[in-house]
Amino acid sequence: MYDLITLGGIDLQRTESSAPHPLLGQRKRFALLAYLALARPRGIHRRSMLLGLLWPELGAEHGRSALRQAVHGLRRSLGEKVIRSRGDEEIWLDGSVLSCDAVRFEEALGTGQLTHAVELYQGPLLPGFYVDGASGFERWLEDERSRLRERAVSAAWRLAGNAEVGGDLPAAVGWARLGVHHSEHDESSYRRLMAILARSGDRAGAIAAYLQLSRRLAHDFDCAPSAETDSLLRAIKSKTASSLVTPPRPHSVTLQ
Question: Which residues make Cβ contacts (< 8 Å) with residue 6, sequence separation at least 6?
């Protein structure tokens, strides 16, 4: 059994070993493996589509040869059963041979295991990974990065809201900070964090969150927080934040 790590890092390991796998240095083959593991709908993929995704510069004959070699290399490295095929056109990844953290993340969301899902999401999908000459794969990867990040942020905020409604303000703050961490430059996430901190009585923490946002926006975009965020800061300083921001209601625990 192999474990493919794609969230917040890149790794491929045998379940019983921590040694890095040689496939990590073979970008096209690793990209093919990652796509077969993660692409939706999960399951069978047509070879013709994979050619356009990873070998667009090659003609049909040379592209099919490159794909056959890549599949052969994956089978040689991970075992003959890792890539299944049917006829000349259809291939798929055998999930009983290889497990993937991003797949487990989405499965946890689908069954309402929000805490487990957020723990699985350690950061962006395949951070820093790229494949020269494969613009289709790059577009797919960027779209998936955004989609999975949004799902992780949504789950973190659901947990924060549920914790606050349940009266566990320290847990609510912790989940909110995680939501901000994965939200990058999203001001609305910072405002939600500031409001939760203010409602928990930590005005200094709320002001510190505002200052962190200000520094990040100034450094990355040479701009300042919006008028809405400034207004919330003034309310917090005047101890009226609770009157401006309504505490959240409980959320359903299943994300689609």
Answer: 34, 37, 38, 100, 101, 102, 125, 126
Taking the C-alpha atoms of residue 20 and residue 130, their distance in angstroms, rounded to an integer, is 19
pTM above 0.70, yes or no: yes
The residue type at 17 = S
Q: Are 241 and 235 in contact (CB under 8 A)?
A: yes
pLDDT tens readout for residues 183-242: 878 999 999 999 999 999 999 999 999 999 999 999 999 999 999 999 999 999 987 655
CB–CB of 123/7 below 8 Å? yes
**At which residue do the structure tokens 């957020």 appear?**
118
Task: Name the nearest CA neighbour of 13 among 108, 76, 78, 70.
Answer: 78
CA distance 22 to 38: 20
Task: Please count the other Cβ atoms lying within 10 Å of the Cβ belonging to residue 82.
Answer: 20
